[in-house]
Amino acid sequence: MASRTLTGTGATPRAGVGTVVWYDPEVTLPEADEPVDAAAERDRFADAVETARAELEQERDATAERVGEEEAAIFDAHIQFLEDPTIADAVEASIDDGHAAARAVDDAFGEHIEQFEGMDGRMAERADDLRDVRDRLLRLLTGGDRVNLADLPEGSVVLAERLTPSETAQLDPETVAGFATVTGGRTSHAAIFARSLALPAVVGVGAALNDVADGTEVVVDGDSGELLVEPDEDEREAARADEGADVVAAPVATSDGRDIEVAANVGRPEELEPAADRGADGVGLYRTEFLFLDRDSPPGEDEQYEAIRDALNTFPDGRVVVRTLDIGGDKQVPYLDLPDEANPFLGERGIRRSLGPDSELFATQLRALLRAGANGAGELNVMFPLVATVEELEAAIAAVDDAAADLDDRGVDYERPSLGVMVETPSAVFMAEAFAERVDFLSIGTNDLTQYVMAADRENERTGDLHDPTHPGVVRAIARTVEGAHEHDAWVGMCGEMAGDPAVTELLVGLGLDELSMSAVTIPDVKAAVRETEYSAARERADSARRVATRSELHDTLQ
Amino acid sequence: MSDERVVEIVPAAGLHARPAALFVETVTDHDADVEVGPPEGDLVPAKSMIAVTSLGVGQGDELRLVADGPEAGTVLDELERILTTPEDELEA
To answer: Is residue A419 a contact partner of residue A403, using CB atoms and an 8 Å limit?
Structure first.
């Protein structure tokens, strides 16, 4: 038995065993009443600012070269926050009052961080900027070494307060055994990125994680969401054995011959190759909004065209389903000036913005997509998010017609893609037949569909139990959608987290889904589960599953 | 020497990220005290990134700039250029 077990949220259904390396270790501030030499503390503060500036300039240049000027701009902002005279004045006054430089820095930033935290969306992001600058100074002042995430010893388990997507991206799955964070949820960007890297990860462990010291042996179990401190030999063995199923490159079918397409959900270009390596037949959900995040202005037509063409070339024999811009809800984009809404998840998001304030962006995106369809190797499919009415769908299809007409005028090569609708709203479930009459496919987004069918916020821990797609209400909604789609010969896929759970693969195949799309990490497990499924038997079991009244009865049908 | 003017913000991000960093850097590089704020509201020191960012200025908002010092005119010309140039055309 492990000496201690800490519980968080599993981000990747994999386990790993290794040695703890803390990233940005908790800074120990000097005691408030320790006597300090004011002149020396002022010098230390000035030195720390100078070193921090040099680091930021170096990181800015490296980022500009590796990623791009726009991504590097954040470091320019950090330099200005670092050198803000308001901070310098407050720190120096506090040092003169007898405080050590580190404590003075912590206090000076604290006030402004709180001020920004109290503001709305994009202003609250400035609190993160200030926190980063503060932590950089505190590390320099307290002599804490910063770990280089890209160069960790083999078998490291990274522990951190939180990891940004770019920090997560530096982790090398070949050497890093996993990571765990104090904060963060299953749908945080770090968690999603961990899944595409197939990196064992547990997020949201809470403050108890801070008690796990550097150098401790741990097991990160992303299946159970547990972190085992000082595991015994059996627990280590179990974690090492959890390699998952073998990668199957070819498309799979059930034992009685029904083809099931198993595809990957992809949010960034870097995730395409790993998805192909894990045996994805294609892309079932390409989240284009990632092209729009973490920058100051929207990507142009050519940049989007290239990104989608690259995706099509990664899967020359497969299908790539691109979802048009899905902004709003919890996805904020500073330069789009999103409105403050009391209920953003019930507000202007998804197709509603594309047909409204973002119609120009939508037109640009559709032109980029149509051009990519003609020039990429794979088969392009385009779907619209959060459609609730046939009118919206018809307006979106008309926008595709307009984009084609524009490209005709310009004399540019293009191809009309197959079109589809994401089924996320209860209305879309009831209207599935009407949608299927007008498009080639439907794709069920179970994360949002569950949230809207159950009226349970996916981020709210208190309603977490309701946000479960195996409640009979959600299963019946899925069954109804499949029937509606097949009535008009549209194929139907699923691209929510549920699609990647091998425990429900038989149920989903039995309900009649034609395609399952998931984070790349679970593709081998789901392909294995498809092959073990006998379609005729699965149909019978699914038929009973959709008639049960309670979740526990439904779970009984999965045994 | 003192000078002032009101400018409408052009960059899509408003006064954030790169435009804000360039704005504050420009103020620091000139020999003039500059204050900034809404046309009818309180002014804050333009050399403070925190104060400038806290204004929450977005695209299309108007901003009042007041400069005092030997380079008051020059710095306002330069700041006006930053605030009225789309980001992708902005030279650092």
So the answer is: no
Burial class (CB in 10 A: 0-12, 13-18, 19+), A212: buried
A77 contacts B21? CB cut-off 8 A: yes
B92/A123 CB distance under 8 A: no
What mean pLDDT, rounded, does chain B reach? 88
Q: Using CB atoms, which residue from B56, B59, B92 is nearest to A123?
A: B56
Contact call for A116 and B20, based on CB within 8 A? no
Query: Is the separation of the CB atoms in A15 and A89 below 8 Å?
Result: no
Of B13, B28, B53, the CB nearest to A335: B13
Contact between B17 and A122 using a beta-carbon 8 Å cutoff: no
ipTM given for this complex: 0.91
Residues 6+ apart with CB under 8 A from B47: A85, B24, B27, B28, B34
| Residue A28 within any structural domain of the chain | no
8 Å CB contact of B25 and A80: yes
**Looking at the predicted structure, is the pLDDT value of residue A382 above 70?**
yes
pTM: 0.60
The whole domain housing A151 covers 4-23+147-241
Which range of A183-197, A268-282, A410-424 scores highest in mean pLDDT? It is A410-424
Identify whether residues A152 and A136 lie together within a single domain: no
Summary count for chain B: helices (H), strands (E): 3, 4
- What is the structure's pLDDT at A70? 67
User: In whole angstroms, what is the distance from residue A145 CA to residue A454 CA?
Assistant: 47
pLDDT above 90: residue A194: no
**In sequence order, which residues have a C-beta less than 8 Å from that of residue A375 and are 6 or more positions away?**
A305, A309, A312, A413
C-alpha span between A227 and A2 (Å, rounded): 9
Q: Do B21 and A122 touch (CB under 8 A)?
A: no
Q: Is A233 within 8 Å of A510 (Cβ atoms)?
A: no
Instruction: Tell whether A31 is covered by a domain.
Output: no
- A contact residues 60-99, partner B, Cβ 8 Å cutoff: 70, 73-74, 76-77, 79-81, 83-87
CATH code at position A99: 1.10.274.10
Q: Give tens-digit pLDDT for B66-88.
A: 999 999 999 999 999 999 988 77
Interface-testing mutation among A111, A113, A296, A360, with chain B (most B C-beta atoms within 10 A): A296
For residues A243 and A13, the answer to whether their CB atoms sit within 8 Å is no
- A29 lies in a domain? no
Catalytic position from the list A189, A467, A471, A555: A189
pLDDT tens-digit profile of A492-531?
Answer: 999 988 999 999 999 999 999 999 999 988 899 999 999 9
For residue A502, the domain's CATH number is: 3.20.20.60
Fold of B2-85: Histidine-containing Protein; Chain: A; (3.30.1340)
Q: Which residues of chain B does A85 touch, with a Cβ-Cβ cutoff of 8 Å?
A: 45, 47-48
Does residue A332 register a pLDDT over 70?
no
Q: Are residues A404 and A453 in the same domain?
A: yes
- The answer to whether A532 touches A255, Cβ cutoff 8 Å, is yes
Query: Which residues of B are part of the catalytic machinery?
Result: 16
Same domain assignment for residues A455 and A325 = yes
Chain A residues lying within 8 Å of B53, measured CB to CB:
116, 123, 126
Is the four-CA dihedral A83, A87, A90, A91 of positive or negative sign?
A: negative
B29 in contact with chain A, both atoms CB, cutoff 8 A:
no
pLDDT at A28 > cutoff 90: no
